[in-house]
Amino acid sequence: MRTDALIGALTADAAVARPARLSNQFWAAVAIATVCAAVAFALTIGPRPDAMSALGSVRYVFKFVVTIALAIGAAAFLRRLTRPAAASGKTGVALWIAPVLLAAGVAVELIVAPRAEWAPRLIGHNALFCMAMIPLLSALPLAALLWTLRRAAPGSPAGMGAAAGVLAGAIAATFYAAHCQDDSPLFVAAWYPVGIAVVTAAGAALGARLLRW
Amino acid sequence: MRHQERDWASWMKAAHAGDAAAYRRLLEALTPFLRAVVRRRGAGPGLDAADVEDVVQETLLAIHLKRGTWDPRQPVGPWVAAIARNKLIDAMRRRGRRIDVPIDDFLETLPAPEPDGELSSREAERLLEVLKGRQHQVVKAITVDGEDIRGAAERLHMSEGAVRVALHRGLAALSAAYRSFRE
Questions:
Q1: Alpha-carbon gap, residue B49 to B183, rounded angstroms
Q2: Which residues of B touch A11 (CB under 8 A)?
Q3: How confident is the model over A78-131, as pLDDT tens digits?
Q4: Which residues are paired to A2 by β-bridges?
C-alpha cells in the first residue's frame, strides 16, 4: 500500500463523514448517565420517605456534598483524558476534594459524637445493601459513558475506564444517598468507597477491552 | 515550529469545515514528521523502509479515525503528537520493539524526506485480506490501486455513495485489524 494512496483514501472519507466532536458529546454522555441513574433509582429503591424533610439535617446534606464533589472531580478528570494532548496532572487534584471533605467530616463526627455511638454509626443499618446498590445503580451510567468514550484516544484505556467507573459510581452514590438511612460520615467513609471501588475496577476491566483503539 | 502550528491549525479547521484539499495538505505535511520520528526512535536492526512505512500508515489511519478528539481550542501540534505517540508505541510493540516518543521529540524532529522510489508497506496489504466483500474491493481499489471514488464506483459497478460507505466502514475495519493483529 502506498502512503500517498492511503492519504487519498483518508481524504475521500473525510469529505463525506464529518466526525462528531468528542468535546461536544462528552457532557451529553454525562447527562445521559445521570438520567440513567435517576431512572434506575426511581424504578427500584427510590428515595427514603423523609428525603425532603431530612434536608434540614447536616449529616444528610453532607452525604450529597461528598458524592457530588466526587462526581464533579471525576467528570473534570475524565474530560481532561478525552483530550489527547492534555496532561492529567492538574485536574488529578479535583479527584482528591471529595476524599479530603469526607475525612474532615469523619474527624468532626468523631469529635461531636459520643464514643459509644461510633461503632453503631459506623456499622449502620445495612452496609451490604449499600455496597451492592451503588454498583447496581451505576451499571447503566457506566455503559453510557463507555459508549461515548469509544471515540476517545486514551493513552491508557484501562485508566480511562477506571475514571469513568469513578464518575458512574459517584453519580450512583449520589442517588443512593437519598435512599440510605445512615447519614453519619463514619458510615459513608466505611462503605460508600467499597461500592465505588467495585465500579472503578469494573470500569478499568471494561475499558481495557472496549476503549482500545 | 510556530509557523508549522499555524499551517496545521488552519488546515485542520478548514478540514473540519469540509475542505478535503486542506485535509490532504495536513496529512501530507504530517507524514514526513511521522517518518522521521519512527526512523529515529524506532531505529534498530531489521526495521527497513517498508516497516517504517507500515508504522507511519497505521498512525495516519489512527489520526484520521480519531480526528473527532481534536478540540478547536487546542493547538494541533501537541494533539497530533499525542495521538501519533500512542500509535507508534503500539505499532512498535507489536514488532517486539520499544519506542520512546517524547511529545517534544515529534514537534522538534526535522521532517524526513521521502525515500527514493518505493513508498509501499507490506503489513497493510496483508491486513486488507481480513476485510470482506465490498469493503475489501473498495479499500483495495483506492489505497492500493490508487483509484478515486468515481473510478472505483465505475469499475465495481457500484454507486458512488455505496463506495463511500464501504470505504468508511473498511477503514474502521482496517484499524480494528491492526489492533487484533499480533505478529
A1: 18
A2: 20, 23-24, 27
A3: 999 998 876 555 677 889 999 999 999 999 999 999 999 999 999 998 899 999
A4: B120
Radius of gyration of chain A (CA): 20
pLDDT at residue number B127? 85
On the question of pLDDT at B115 being above 70, the answer is no
| Confidence (pLDDT) at B1 | 56
Reported as half-sphere exposure (CB side, CA atoms, 13 A), residue B14 has a value of 16
Return the H-helix or E-strand segment holding B67. Answer: none
Query: How close B42 comes to chain A (CA, Å)?
Result: 19
CA triple A32-A34-A35, angle to 5 deg: 65
The interface predicted TM-score of the complex, written ipTM, equals 0.89
For residue A8, the chain B residues in CB contact (below 8 A) are 24, 142-143, 146, 148
Encode pLDDT of B50-69 as tens digits. 888 888 999 999 999 999 99
> Are B71 and A10 an interchain contact pair (Cβ–Cβ within 8 Å)?
no
CA trace torsion B42, B35, B132, A9 (10° rounding): 170
Could you report the per-residue pLDDT of A15-33, keeping only the tens digit for each?
A: 776 778 898 899 999 999 9
What pTM did the predictor assign?
0.90
Calpha distance A123→A130 (Å, rounded): 11
Say yes or no for a CB contact (<8 Å) between B164 and A9.
Answer: no
CA dihedral B137→B139→B140→B146, nearest 10 degrees, is 130
Measured CA to CA, the distance from residue B131 to residue B139 in angstroms comes to 9
Sign of CA dihedral B134, B176, B55, B47: negative
Return the C-alpha torsion angle A96, A195, A87, B181, nearest 10.
170
What is the secondary structure of B94-142 as a DSSP string? Answer: HTT------HHHHHHSPPPPPPSS--B-SHHHHHHTTS-HHHHHHHHHH
